[in-house]
Backbone:
């Protein structure tokens, strides 16, 4: 980061100037998202903070599959991401300047700041992170939105019981890798599906009580034929459908009669429905993280300029665990 201080005629420091970089989302993708749907804009930035505002510098930026859902032309749980605005994202950042009593320069914070190196935000938009308690990057993963998704999705919708079999698609990803570990903690037998190998034949040999679905498509078609009586299916994500399939849905084999025969319940879950219960999740999970009983795995890409490529990489299976971009 380049930083300049300007002096007034008496030599006192007047304001700081920073080099601001921002990735603007400028073009809606029809199929796969890539660099061509974004524009990198750079400018000098001399912020003047109003009361309760904080200037932060992003250090780690999240890249998530939901970004592609928001890029579809149709309404999901919210309207499409507007064009010509900074790509929304959660970041882990450091406070540079503060006009808010709750934040001091040097504090670590997290918030929904977007793909930008710096931002001036009201303190209410930030949560403080304690690096003594946990690696600050966990705020983008196990102690953040993916952790909340995995925990409440499995516990509230999956209702795992000891001895049951939990099948997880996208099992090596940010959410899937946590679901597998939470299910083991719950005393379940866990089977994970990851990578591009054809697993359908093998899947037929399983009897599944909880299917935690991150990917949809043919993997789910296969999983539905392997469900036990009164199984629970948790629809967390359908990543195989995001690149084109959201606006013109793929029509594939349908096995819904299996849900009838086996009296299966299907439950769609959304992380934001559990935001108010974040403390409950952290109370359970943070001690496991601190004790090293649950591994938080991440794939870290170095360089702000690689944000769009890292997003595209999610749809090619380039990440193991949480995909994070480090701002350098
Ligand atoms: N409901 C919610 O609130 C919520 C919250 C967070 C995430 N999600 C959803 O949960 C899923 C996982 O999200 P995440 O953040 O944990 O991402 P992630 O799993 O870390 O990254 C995406 C992974 O998906 C797999 N994948 C990509 N394209 C695929 C395809 N066409 N078919 C099958 N697998 C494919 C790849 O793994 P492999 O190479 O191993 O297949 C890739 O590494 C996504 O569908 C996401 O939208 C939902």
Residues:
């Amino acid at each position: 980061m380049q930083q300049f201080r300007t002096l007034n005629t008496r030599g006192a420091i007047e304001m700081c100037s920073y080099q601001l970089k921002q990735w603007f989302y400028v073009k809606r993708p029809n199929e796969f998202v890539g660099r061509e749907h974004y524009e990198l804009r750079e400018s000098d930035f001399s912020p003047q903070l109003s009361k309760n505002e904080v200037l932060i510098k992003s250090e780690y930026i999240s890249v998530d599959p939901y970004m592609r859902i928001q890029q579809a032309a149709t309404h999901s749980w919210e309207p499409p991401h507007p064009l010509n605005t900074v790509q929304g994202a959660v970041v882990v950042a450091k406070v540079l300047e503060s006009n808010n009593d709750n934040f001091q320069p040097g504090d670590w914070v997290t918030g929904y700041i977007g793909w930008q190196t710096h931002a001036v935000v009201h303190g209410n938009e930030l949560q403080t992170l304690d690096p003594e308690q946990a690696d600050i990057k966990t705020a983008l993963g196990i102690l953040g939105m993916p952790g909340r998704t995995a925990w409440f999705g499995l516990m509230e919708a999956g209702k795992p019981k000891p001895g049951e079999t939990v099948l997880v698609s996208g099992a090596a990803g940010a959410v899937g890798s946590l679901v597998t570990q939470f299910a083991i903690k719950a005393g379940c037998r866990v089977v994970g599906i990851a990578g591009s190998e054809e697993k359908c034949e093998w899947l037929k040999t399983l009897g599944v009580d909880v299917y935690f679905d991150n990917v949809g498509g043919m993997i789910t078609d296969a999983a539905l034929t392997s469900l036990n009586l009164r199984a629970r299916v948790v629809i967390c994500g359908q990543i195989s459908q995001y690149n084109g399939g959201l606006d013109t849905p793929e029509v594939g084999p349908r096995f819904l009669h299996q849900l009838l025969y086996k009296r299966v319940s299907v439950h769609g879950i959304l992380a934001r429905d559990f935001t108010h219960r974040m403390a409950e999740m952290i109370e359970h999970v943070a001690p496991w993280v601190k004790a090293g009983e649950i591994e938080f795995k991440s794939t870290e890409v170095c360089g702000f300029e690689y944000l769009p490529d890292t997003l595209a990489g999610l749809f090619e299976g380039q990440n193991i665990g949480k995909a994070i971009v480090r701002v350098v």
